[in-house]
Model the fold of this input.
Amino acid sequence: MAMPRKEFDKEQFEKLCQMFCTEKEICSWFGTSDKTLSNWCKRTYGKTFSETYKEKREGGKASLRRIQLHLAEKSAAMAIFLGKNYLGQSDADTHKQAVDKANLELRKREVEAKEF
Done:
């Protein structure tokens, strides 16, 4: 007689994926093997564990992004981080502006020195 198929709480599984838990951690949570979890994913979602995990963790990314945006309202460091990572801003622009300003000042002094 075959053993009954192991079933998992789908909502709990998806929340663990959204928390970026590893496959090993998810297996440990449910007290099962990676093979059993993979077979359940195939039956439940029609996909491998890896494919299912990639899809379900996207909700966690959205939650993390929402938290970061909220933190940016109160934290200059977070606002700078988000600007660099999502808006293409960088310290290099600030550095380039400072160098350009210094070069302009140097040229101005050279012209003034020649006029003497």
In short: The chain has two domains: 10-58, 75-115.
